[in-house]
Design a protein that fits this description.
Elements: H1 2-18, E1 26-37, E2 43-56, E3 59-72, E4 75-89, E5 94-98, E6 108-111, H2 112-119, H3 124-127, E7 133-140, E8 144-151, E9 162-169, H4 181-187, E10 190-198, E11 201-203, E12 208-210, E13 213-222, H5 227-243
Antiparallel strand pairs: 1-2, 1-13, 2-3, 3-4, 4-5, 5-6, 7-8, 8-9, 9-10, 10-13, 11-12
Helix pairs in contact: 1-5
């Protein structure tokens, strides 16, 4: 029965696309940011990776970045960020990967779980277990919650202290992707951001001080500016599924 419903929804999506009806096309971004600081507090390293997520009715697409490096005589020739695309129906266990720059990976079928594991390397549940956190403060509003915790899992007095902050909000365009389905359910809101700060600490291995570290995991609503590319891959997926 579920597969029949999924097929019907896919067919309805195909009809809507072919009639240029994209009002329900939504865009989100899964953003991981990482920053290291010197002992004096100056930032010495920052990196941010963004995976764009799109949904149309029951069809989902990931725009996944990867680094391309080209060498000539062992010297860097070209370094750039490229993208591949993974499309699937929400009730499906598998989808198709589209990669215009790597033919060997283009139009390949993969399980959703395997792509999720490789793409979303961190979720809120993986950062800290709830029983490892000690609540410090809570700020509640009608449509938002901000919680601040201290991590209890300090090994000894020289271990770094970590602060963890959770940001929740009620959203009318609730994204299909979740940073923590468990916390979403408990709070009856969407967890959209997790921020962690680890104080400077002594590295016991080489007896040197390590500066503070910030880590942010965030789910953002974004405008859909590249509709042509998005729709082209959704068309490919719909054509393949309908033909099967």
């Amino acid at each position: 029965m579920k597969s029949l419903i999924a097929i019907c929804l896919i067919l309805s999506c195909g009809h809507a696309f072919r009639n240029n009806s994209t009002e329900q096309l939504q865009g989100f971004a899964y953003v991981i940011s990482y920053a290291e600081y010197t002992l004096s507090g100056k930032m010495k390293f920052f990196n941010s990776d963004t995976t764009k997520l799109y949904s149309y009715k029951n069809i989902v697409m990931y725009r996944i970045p990867y680094r391309f490096d080209s060498l000539l005589n062992n010297r860097p020739l070209l370094k750039e960020t490229r993208y591949h695309y993974f499309v699937y129906a929400k009730d499906s266990s598998c989808g198709y990967n589209y990669d215009p720059m790597r033919p060997e990976l283009d139009n390949k079928r993969y399980s959703v779980d395997s792509i999720d594991a490789a793409t979303f390397v961190t979720t809120a549940d993986e950062l800290f277990k709830q029983n490892d956190l000690l609540l410090q403060s809570t700020h509640k509003e009608v449509s938002a919650i901000h919680e601040i915790y201290l991590a209890k899992s300090k090994v000894n007095a020289t271990s770094p202290q970590s602060t963890v902050e959770y940001f929740y909000a009620k959203r009318s365009n609730d994204p299909f992707f979740s940073l923590s389905k468990q916390l979403d359910s408990i709070k009856e809101m969407k967890l959209y951001k997790v921020y962690t700060h680890t104080d400077s600490f002594l590295n016991q291995t080489n007896n040197t001080m390590i500066g503070a570290i910030d880590y942010t995991l965030e789910l953002q609503s974004i405008s859909v500016d590249d509709q042509r590319d998005i729709l082209s891959y959704l068309h490919r997926y719909l054509d393949q599924v309908i033909k099967k």
